[in-house]
Design brief:
43% helix; three-stranded antiparallel beta sheet; elongated; alpha+beta
Amino acid sequence: MCEALRKDPEIDIDALREGRSFATKAQGPQAQSAIGPDDVKLIRRLVSRLRDNDELEEFELIYLGGRAKREGGLELVLPEEMKLLERLAWLENAST
């Protein structure tokens, strides 16, 4: 059965067998094992902090329109960078 499923490029059989939460293969040239479960947790924490205006206030930053920026000015994290972090953390549809 594993050999049959290995033929589907969208399914990561090793992830299924190991009980990892992401059993679909990431798209693109990067190796599947480049970002592990602990890395995903760290990226999720970073995304959470970047979206938290109370957390950003200490640095005179706000999260608005998918970006972390100075109020009324310079951007620290652009929307496309935020989307990348969300994809890496498997939070693609969680944008606020």
